[in-house]
Amino acid sequence: xxxxxxxxxxxxxxxxxxxxxxxxxxxxxxxxxxxxxxxxxxxxxxxxxxxxxxxxxxxxxxxxxxxxxxxxxxxxxxxxxxxxxxxxxxxxxxxxxxxxxxxxxxxxxxxxxxxxxxxxxxxxxxxxxxxxxxxxxxxxxxxxxxxxxxxxxxxxxxxxxxxxxxxxxxxxxxxxxxxxxxxxxxxxxxxxxxxxxxxxxxxxxxxxxxxxxxxxx
Length: 217
Ligand code: AMP
Description:
This protein is an alpha/beta fold.
């Protein structure tokens, strides 16, 4: 029986991307970030990327059929048989239902959910100060996690910049979209007894410990 897959839920800026890497490594899961897949598709100018770009720039959600298609392809890939760590997906109830159906179709265990909860005012401060590297998207924060040399990624040396959707007005829109469209899916996992809640108003090492403890409980 393969390990259960995990979906990381939480508002933008909750630290899903930061937590995904160690969690996936620890549990032998394949990390899949739909935001990262979509940004790569936009950069490459693929049909999915061209269709997604204007929604992303406006801080809105990319239509379900595009994102669900990307995730279905990943689940059908035998390389993900050992389980997936999904970060940024699902973001709507329809996506959560499509995900369960796809796992069932491939005889994989239904995914567990970890919800990282952070108050909005903390998220605004985190996202406005976030900087990412041009090549790989490694994340920094101007105050809490500055790079060793200003404006340069410690890991691959590429220049750091603000993500287009981390502009203040777009941040507010993304948070509103989260509360309206994504929060309702928490109930989807809670009702089926698959939800683990973790407080994310802390440093990343502490959040990592809290997630491990929640999944052990
Ligand atoms: P993220 O890197 O997870 O913050 O995602 C960046 C942007 O990509 C989001 O603001 C959305 O526009 C889009 N996106 C990522 N994942 C999804 C998803 N599951 N459903 C719809 N849009 C998504």
